[in-house]
Amino acid sequence: MKLLRQLVYPLAAVLAAFLVGGLVILWVGDSPLETYALLLGSAVSWPDGIGYTLFYATPLIFTGLAVAVAFRCGLLNIGAEGQLIAGAFATAWAGITFASLPAWLLIPLCCLAAIAAGAAWGTVPGVLRARFGAHEVITTIMMNFIAAALASYLTQYHYKKEGDAILQTTPIGESAHIARLGRFVPGMPERIPVSVAFLLALLACVLVWVFLRQTRWGYEIRATGANPAAAEYGGIHTGRQIVLAMAVSGGLAGMVGIGEVLGYRYRYYDGFSAGYGFTGIAVALLGRNHPFGALLAALLFGAFLRGALFVDIFTEHVSKDLVLVLQAVIILFVAAEALFRGGRLSRLGRLAKGKV
Amino acid sequence: MSDIFKIALLFSMIRLATPLLLAALGGLWSERSGVINIGLEGLLLSGAFTAAVVTHFVHSPWIGLAAAIAAGMLVALVHAFVCITCKADQVVSGTAINILFLGLPALLSGAFFDSTGATPQIPKGELLPIAPIVLAFALVPLTWYVLYRTPFGLRLRAVGENPEAADTAGIRVEAVRYAGVILSGALAAIGGAYLSTGQSSLFTRNMSAGRGFIALAALIFGKWRPVQTMLACLLFGLAEAISIQMQGVAKIPVEFIQMIPYVLTIVVLAGFIGLSRPPRALGVPYEKKR
Fold it and tell me: CA B266, B272, B275: angle at the middle one, nearest 5?
């Protein structure tokens, strides 16, 4: 019963988004039903539809979890985009620099680099918030731009192959490649880039759930998010929880680099992220900041991203940008939910004591 | 450095600071009333797209500008409704607006002009003259005057600092906040119109390229005050002008100059250069006590 109640509002938000999106589709002169049939139908076909849906869902699971963990601490991490750029660049850097190492050593090293770089990028706003009261929303936005500029600079001036017209690094060592699911799943060709990183994402969901539910740190993070004053009174060092939550959040976002670099492009590619960090906000909100909710929401948005390509090609007028419209409307509806449920989200407002 | 080069740099700075200033002043009206406006980027884009499309069809940049203002106010109204009436999280709502205007203009221009990347080119004679630049800088003293010397400005500041007290004094908190947010939409949309039909001659996808966020940075750097905010916009405009002029010839990579506004904002927020204190009730939905 409780689960059902948890599901009703997100589903209503998705339906509302489809309605608003349908009006836009009608306006530009296509059939909403046909467009949606195309959008969702092409995402569940076997093996390409499902394979690509899981591929697109992988980074979204990581960023959704990242945003959700920060949310639970009462923080809004708009910086997942910058953290995943930092993570992806570090992954490629490790894969290039230590290319001669054997796979059993190199792959974990690359993963560690992804997590560490993302966590570092998340920790900075965490410390600025806990120590100086600088609001994490603004600092994470600024950190996004700094990450993008730094990664472009490093790629352009230090890690690009001489004469390469594309802004990308040299390839990582072959021993750093991780297996694509096609190698194990009968009927799924290996050209589909969904890799074991997807399994890692599922594992991350479980681990985040355990972390938040079963560990002391998770409890203290949740207590800080629920009521910082009471948590402080109860002996919890809320500043430390803020830094911890941002580090975990950043580390999760950084893990996007694992699938994108080690399983798909095999290098750092400038501008590889299709706004995964921002979609992560929608994923977390729609998933009610619960790890398993985020998983479901990430699968939905992954399906959108997959289906969007077909909408782009096979409809007369509608382009793949429809997905962004759906995403925005979903966020607005979930955010406006406070009106209907007595201010669950406005709880964040109470926490926003920092400087904006 | 030759004089011509310096003068060119100066003009370039003012030109580049204009959309920042319009968006930042917009942000100022919203935030001084207590509503975070992280959707400036989306508002800029809404204005830029509307201006480019309407100017293309009616061949008058002025009607395009008027339509852009209307569009910006409409989008801001959505933000105001979600934040003020629904009491939703203001940052989340602003983020949604930014995402919406990454997608919606591309979707519409793809449908109407067969190109998701750009709207049709507007002929040179149908572009906005320097009026938006003059307007932007004229708005600074005007904003100062309205904010500090008129009853409306006083109410707006009161609502942003201490809504309970303002409410007790008979000010309609929600109405004043609506006004602040809608005004911010109008101003940011003028900035957007200048981007697409003044500085350039068409709308391209995501053409604001983070200017909404730089405007937000300027607002914080300027401590939510009109004159200081203008100076911050000029500084960030200068940084952009230098990075454009140095492209290719510079010893310092442009990326580092582009980072200046972002790094400065973090430094200021952390309190290393003077304290930047936001309006006290910023980000907190107002709930009437019964």
Answer: 90
